[in-house]
Amino acid sequence: MTFNTANIVSGLVVFVILVAIMFLCSRHISMKPGKGQNFLEWLIDFTNGILKGSLPNNEVNAFGLYAFVLFAFLFVSNTLGLFIQVSMHGVTLVRSPTSDPIVTLTFSLTTMMIAQFAGVRKLGYKRHFENYLHPFKIWIVMNVFEQFTDFLTLGLRIFGVVFSGEMLLKVIYTDLAAKGGAWLIAAVPLEVIWQGFSVFLGAIQAFVFVTLSTVYIAKGLGEE
């Protein structure tokens, strides 16, 4: 069995960053919230708003924590490699965790498993799996294939965006900045502009991932 060092180290870095942010924003909870508390409350309201777009109100609380943690972790994971990339002796240690399809497909698989579990919990095994036989029994093949394609597209979409963003940054640095002189002057603003745009894309992809996760969970609950 082999382990991807970059995934493990990068994941731990994201975890530490998020714990530090949550601790700093929540250590002074009061009825008159400060900037940190306001930020956390806004983020919770934002992710709950995503859930309310697809789920009934009585189900929102059950998945609120998952949506909140998922969005926060994905956003930091999507943008980490834009600002911090560490390699040692030719081995990458720190980059965006979501630039590896194994990581994004793991998140995707987690969502699909939660959707199945939620469906079984609400409908029972028989009623839940009977949904795969609608509208016709032979349709089970299409319904199972749809689950598989949902799993793939959910994970590979975010991987493609993050991976291409990091690759373009490397191209700007190695092909332009490394030449020095006027090329270096041109590379700096290009890199800053692309970093800013990639942060925006990272936020959009985290939003899309959570939104689609909510849709798939709603389908599992029979709310489509």
Label this structure with key terms.
mainly alpha; 6 helices
Content-based structural category? mainly alpha
Q: Major sheet, described briefly?
A: 2 strands, antiparallel
Runs with pLDDT <50, length 5+?
none
General form: globular
Strand/helix succession: HHHEEHHH
- Count of all domains: 1
Describe this structure in words.
Belongs to the ATPase A chain family. It comes from Levilactobacillus bambusae. There is one protein chain. The protein has 224 residues and is mostly helical. The chain has one domain. It has 6 helices and 2 strands. Helix 3 runs antiparallel to helix 6 and helix 4 (101-130) runs antiparallel to helix 5. It starts with a helix and ends with a helix.
SSE blueprint and pairings:
Layout: H1 5-26, H2 35-52, H3 57-83, E1 86-88, E2 91-94, H4 101-130, H5 140-176, H6 182-220
Antiparallel strand pairs: 1-2
Short recap of the structure:
The chain crosses the membrane at residues 6-25, 62-82, 102-120, 193-218. The chain is built from 6 helices and 2 strands. It has helices spanning 5-26, 35-52, 57-83, 101-130, 140-176, 182-220; strands spanning 86-88, 91-94.
